[in-house]
């Protein structure tokens, strides 16, 4: 099953300023499909270009609603609408980057581990010649 369609596959995303905290507050992100990632990026770019603070927050919340499915070690019930009560403006922008970076790196790590596991578990099979 593609990773973006598997609801059990999530990644904990930690803000830059929280990386050394114990316990670490984190945001639980699902993997985004290509279409979801394009929509997420479009909303982030619109927020970046917006001048009105309320519209910026509205666009970021719409963006976060795509990948975020929860949070941990945060003293408030999870709700996308509550995110403004949890994060500063700067942290909201940091979260936009951390979601993209952390999810992409985690997916690459999983892929590399799967490839490594496959190559360790299977014997080399000669590749048949390609006819011209």
Tell me the layout of helices and strands.
Blueprint: E1 10-13, E2 26-30, H1 34-49, H2 53-64, E3 68-72, H3 83-86, H4 89-121
Antiparallel strand pairs: 1-2, 2-3
Provide a descriptive summary of the structure in words.
By secondary structure, this protein is mainly alpha-helical. It has one domain (3-105). The chain has helices at 34-49, 53-64, 83-86, 89-121; strands at 10-13, 26-30, 68-72. The protein has a three-stranded antiparallel sheet with strand order 1-2-3, with helices on one face. The model has no long low-confidence stretch (mean pLDDT 90).
Helix fraction?
40-55%
Shape: globular
- Give me the secondary-structure category: mainly alpha
What oligomeric assembly is this protein in? single chain
The H-and-E topology, N to C, reads as EEHHEHH
Distance between the termini: 35 Å
- Number of beta strands: 3
Strand content: 5-15%
Largest sheet: 3 strands, antiparallel
Identify low-pLDDT runs.
Answer: none
Describe the structure concisely for a colleague.
By secondary structure, the protein is mainly α.
List keywords for this structure.
132 residues, mainly alpha, 3 strands, 11% strand
């Amino acid at each position: 099953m593609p990773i973006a369609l598997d609801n059990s596959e999530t990644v904990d995303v930690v803000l830059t300023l929280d990386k050394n905290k114990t316990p670490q507050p984190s945001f639980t992100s699902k993997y985004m499909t290509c279409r979801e990632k394009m929509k997420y990026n479009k909303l982030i770019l619109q927020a970046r270009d917006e001048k009105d603070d309320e519209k910026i927050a509205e666009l970021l919340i719409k963006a976060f609603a795509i990948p975020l499915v929860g949070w941990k070690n945060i003293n408030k019930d999870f709700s996308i609408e509550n995110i403004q009560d949890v994060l500063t403006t700067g942290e909201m922008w940091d979260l936009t980057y951390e979601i993209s970076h952390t999810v992409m790196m985690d997916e690459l790590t999983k892929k590399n581990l799967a490839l490594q596991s496959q190559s360790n578990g299977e014997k080399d099979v000669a590749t048949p010649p390609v006819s011209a």
